[in-house]
Amino acid sequence: MTAKTIFSLEGVVLAPPDLAKATLILIDYQNEYLAGPLALVEPESAVARAARLLAAARAAGSHIIHVAQLGEAGGIFDRASVRGAFIDAVSPVEGEKVVEKVNANAFFETGLQALVGPAGTDVIIAGFMTHNCVSSTVRAACDLGYAITIVADACATRDLPLPDGTIVAAAMLHRATIAALGDAQGLIVDVADLIGA
């Protein structure tokens, strides 16, 4: 039997949103993920695609929100350090909102929901890490009634160990997470699907 998503079984037809009418949420594009203990696998390519998406969203007049993980002073995600700072290529500019969080779900006790607006709003989500903060935020956004688009090729993650020591490769973890989110949480696209080649 051919595998189907819950969306397809329910007859839901999804289409990419109009950038000009959508809210773009960029999650945790921070230097912490480029090097060190939390370095992702090939994050540079995801950042480059996120930069293209951000430029197109700015040109279209999208509502843009940047989310950053907030760590303790001297630790990972210390926002006062280079490690916790936004990656230059996708840094906020004047007029773009910044939300700081201490949990994986960017909506939890941050005020993000008020910035995004009412249920039904088109929300485009991309960021780091696919399996953690991206997944948690997408699922929360789904529960809040937003129409969600996940930009798969602008996301990335890292290798993770299983309890028996087996390593789950980042590429596999990323693909599995994206497949799970595409089942019933949101439309899965690549940057080119939203902005063209």
Automatic annotation (TrEMBL):
Transmembrane residue ranges: none
Q: Which InterPro entries match?
A: Isochorismatase-like_dom, Isochorismatase-like_hydrls, Isochorismatase-like_sf
In this chain the Isochorismatase-like domain maps to 23-160
Query: Organism's domain of life?
Result: Bacteria
| Pfam families, per the entry | Isochorismatase
UniProtKB keywords: Hydrolase
Any one Gene Ontology MF annotation carried by this entry is: hydrolase activity
Key word Hydrolase present in the record? Answer: yes
Task: Return the protein name.
Answer: Isochorismatase
